[in-house]
Design brief:
With 290 residues, the protein is α+β, with helices and mostly antiparallel strands. The chain contains nine helices and nine strands. It starts with 12 loop residues before the first helix and ends in a 16-residue tail after the last helix. The relative contact order is 0.08.
Length: 290
């Protein structure tokens, strides 16, 4: 407790121990006389005067080098009012909050590191988008479960959708040709499960409404012990394909991943799907091999 001249008129045993002083050595002295640094003594002088003037408590945190070493203390000063309502003295209490402060500092540092990592990750995403949007090919990426989490601008321009509408795992239902969906789903699922390269030729709906042949390729990129797919599409113009021996009309999708029998296996899978009972739209068998 302080008198109105900022001198200590009471100190408990813990405070005396922190100072390394006896009662007689401490009582009647101010903070500066007890060895407080100039800035620390001046801080408490201002706070005592503020409590006297406002008659309201004041609270703070401050480090102190005492017999316990350098510790952080939380303290509060409150006015002691006399019968006339005027301030007679200023009482104070303090507690050691060093461990709590260390935890808060560590937590703040951890949050700052996480924030910085998030900024760096976002910068990387922005660089990736800038690069892929500058490419003429359609580029996409997928999560470890196979769901699409990114298409570049060229893809959205091709299919005529708004950015973000072709993400997840359901967009292909409307975008892929009905005859290519089953084979595409099976080949993609095997590629995702194995984390192996993926390649498939199928028909994708153009913004004009017509289906166009697309060559899709993907490779697994390892990230934190899991794999995700980084991939791209290339538009295969019907007239050019016809010139290479591929009919420009309807035909089953083709695809392969390492360990499969090859393109004809995927072609047969697609054909079997269309020969299921009740099917009415039967594709013509190509006269030339894939």
């Amino acid at each position: 407790m302080f008198d109105l001249q900022h001198r200590f008129i009471y100190a408990n045993s813990m405070l005396l121990q922190m100072w390394g002083r006896s009662w007689d050595e401490a009582i009647g002295k101010n903070c500066l006389e007890l060895g407080y640094p100039d800035w620390h003594a001046a801080l408490h002088d201002r706070e005592i005067e503020e409590v006297k003037a406002t008659k309201r408590p004041i609270r703070g945190e401050v480090p102190f080098n005492g017999t316990f070493g350098r510790r952080m203390y939380d303290y509060i000063f409150v006015p002691v009012l006399g019968p006339d309502g005027e301030v007679e003295a200023v009482a104070g209490t303090t507690r050691d909050v060093t461990e709590r402060k260390q935890f808060e500092d560590e937590l703040l540092a951890s949050q700052q590191r996480a924030l910085e990592a998030a900024r760096e990750a976002e910068d990387e995403r922005q660089r990736f988008r800038t690069i892929t949007n500058a490419m003429p090919q359609m580029v996409w990426t997928a999560m470890p479960d196979g769901s699409i989490d990114y298409h570049n601008d060229q893809f959205y321009d091709f299919v005529g959708l708004r950015p973000g509408e072709a993400e997840g795992d359901t967009w292909a239902v409307a975008a892929l040709h009905p005859d290519d969906r089953q084979a595409g789903r099976e080949i993609w699922a095997r590629s995702v499960a194995r984390g192996e390269p993926y390649e498939m030729t199928y028909r994708l709906r153009h913004r004009s409404g017509e289906f166009r042949w697309i060559l899709a390729r993907a490779a697994a990129a390892r990230c934190r012990r899991r794999h995700r797919q980084v991939a791209g599409y290339r538009h295969r113009h019907p007239r050019k394909e016809a010139g290479r021996g591929r009919p420009a009309g309807r035909q089953p999708a083709q695809g392969r991943i390492p360990g499969d029998a090859g393109p004809r296996a995927a072609q047969s899978a697609g054909a079997d799907q269309r020969r299921r009972p009740g099917a009415t739209d039967r594709p013509r068998r190509s006269s030339q091999g894939a």
